[in-house]
Design brief:
This protein has 238 residues and is mostly helical. It is built from 8 helices and 2 strands, in the order ααααααβαβα. It has a single domain, classed as Helix Hairpins, CATH 1.10.287.70. It has a two-stranded antiparallel ribbon.
Length: 238
């Protein structure tokens, strides 16, 4: 009776170790890129045309946050990312329950903390050695898209706390459906395109827009310089 139970525990530990090791390899960058492309570019279209329920939108974000748990072997980071994920999960369950209290603002605050930790962990993975390959480029794109999602969350937080952040489009309701407009404006700011159809109307939103534009200009230059330096270091290494 004891032996089968021990074998089952060993199998669970082995599967967990293999999954963690996989996520810490270069191949995981590709999986994350597909998830981010869907979250940033496809999900807003589905939301806008009403083809998805808010539960599906929240499930996508939960899955994105779930991946952050496996981005580090450090026990402290695993504990932090796990706590943030379960906080997200609990807040979303409570929001869809019969409770009258509004948990949406709390969700977004925890979401911002989640994204900050996730960006930090992915930057560490991106520059963890001096090898330059296609996965390093994919990792750089992942960080860029994660910053865009973080910007969208902060724009939404500003709206929820002050009553305004961006304007030029439909009236924002402070719900999941607004994500399409926030991620669009965050990307427009980050890429410094500035179409002008949406614009910040509140000082914090204006400063955030300028900050994203600054990141959008500096980030590619820093990453390219780092990758070039890493490539040179790798060539010198015997």
């Amino acid at each position: 009776m004891v032996e089968p139970l021990l074998n089952k525990r060993r199998k669970i530990k082995y599967a967990f170790r293999n999954f963690t090791n996989y996520w810490l390899t270069d191949a995981s960058f590709g999986v994350l890129l597909l998830l981010l492309i869907f979250t940033v570019f496809v999900l807003p279209i589905l939301i806008e045309y009403g083809h998805v329920h808010s539960i599906f939108v929240n499930t996508v974000f939960l899955f994105l946050f779930f991946t952050g748990i496996w981005s580090s072997k450090n026990n402290s980071f695993i504990l932090i990312t796990s706590a943030l994920f379960f906080a997200q999960l609990a807040l979303r369950i409570l929001r869809f329950s019969d409770w009258d209290f509004e948990f949406y603002l709390s969700e977004r605050i925890v979401g911002i903390l989640n994204m900050i930790v996730f960006i930090f962990l992915n930057i560490r993975l991106l520059f963890r050695d001096f090898e330059v390959n296609v996965y390093r480029v994919i990792g750089a794109i992942n960080v860029y898209l994660l910053v865009a999602i973080l910007g969208a969350f902060v724009f939404e937080i500003i709206h929820l706390m002050t009553g305004s952040s961006i304007s030029g489009g439909p009236n924002l309701a402070g719900l999941d459906e607004d994500y399409a407009y926030y991620i669009y404006f965050s990307l427009v700011s980050l890429t410094t395109v500035g179409f002008g159809d949406l614009y910040p109307v509140q000082i914090m939103a204006k400063m955030l827009s300028v900050f994203l534009s600054t990141i959008g200009i500096l980030y590619p230059a820093v990453v390219i310089a780092k990758l070039v330096a890493s490539s040179g270091h790798g060539q010198k290494t015997p």
